[in-house]
Design goal:
Number of strands: 15
Oligomer: single chain
Number of helices: 7
Distance between the termini: 37 Å
Number of domains: 1
Order of helices and strands: EHEHEHEEEHEEHEHEEEEEEH
CATH architecture: 4-Layer Sandwich
């Protein structure tokens, strides 16, 4: 692999969301995708990008019928939109949606990895934000999910997961190269958001993307963004201005990541553990 081939081009969208209005958000995000000039390999959207952080999944969750993975005609509109954007941009799309999967007894906050073609992969948010009643509206996932894309291994994470480093710890048995956190993280705790993104990058010797929304949601909660791309040294590669909407662009260098890990191999000294 040469240095050019080792690069993964990343674009992340920090935007305000129309409250519980998937149709409006699909239109708005389509327009944003049309405005993206830079070629990208990976495009990241905020948590629950189609609705905002709704606690009303009975009326606003995407319905996923039995066998939905094999029948795109039965996909909900936001998921179809993600596939369309992935195909048009020749990039994988990451973002979460409120979902009611007919194979589960409870709704989930599901992070989707949607490539231009092939199988969609999913991660159901493990750490539910009890402070906002998410645990009453949704059920937790129980599996950590690492996807493979263009030579990279990427850990899928959602918002509140950021506060729990054991779950994201980079382990020898399932090593990853980058972690992606999609979020609706409130402005009141933006310092924690920024500091924890850096901590996750340093402790796991990985690239990190933290992609947050801006604006007021339907519950009157303010979100200030502070989306960032962090390198394995903990340095900020790219960051959007406070409360700004728009694209954040960067690139991840696998060759540099491997050089750093070889020169300073701290991951091999980590404590062994297993998740229950």
């Amino acid at each position: 692999m040469n240095d050019c081939d080792s690069l993964l081009r990343v674009a992340a969208l920090q935007a305000s969301l129309a409250w519980e209005n998937p149709e409006a958000n699909c239109v708005a995000f389509s327009q944003e995708l049309d405005s993206l000039q830079e070629p990208s390999d990976l495009i990241v959207l905020p948590e629950m990008w189609a609705t905002g952080f709704t606690m009303n999944p009975k009326t606003h969750a995407c319905s996923l019928p039995l066998g939905w993975q094999d029948d795109e005609d039965r996909w909900p509109a936001p998921l179809k939109a993600m596939r369309k954007w992935a195909y048009e941009r020749d990039a994988a799309i990451i973002g979460s949606l409120a979902c009611q999967d007919k194979t589960l007894a409870h709704p989930v906050n599901r992070c989707f990895f949607v490539p231009p073609s092939g199988s969609v992969e999913c991660y159901d948010k493990r750490h539910l934000f009890t402070f906002a009643g998410e645990d009453a509206a949704y059920g937790p996932g129980d599996e950590r999910v690492i996807v493979e894309w263009r030579g990279w291994r990427i850990l899928l994470q959602v918002c509140y997961d950021l506060r729990f480093p054991v779950f994201s710890r980079n382990r020898t048995a399932d090593r990853y190269d980058a972690a992606v956190y999609v979020a609706n993280w409130p402005a009141a705790r933006r310092q924690a958001w920024s500091n924890l993104l850096i901590a996750r990058a340093i402790e796991n010797q990985c690239y990190v993307a933290g992609v947050n929304r801006v604006g007021l949601d339907g519950m009157g909660i303010e979100h200030s963004g502070c989306s960032a791309l962090i390198d394995p040294y903990g340095r900020t590669q790219a960051q959007l201005d406070l409360n700004a909407s728009g694209w954040m662009i960067g690139s991840w260098d696998r060759a540099e990541l491997e050089r750093y890990r070889a020169k300073f191999p701290v991951l091999g000294d980590a404590d062994f553990f297993s998740l229950g």
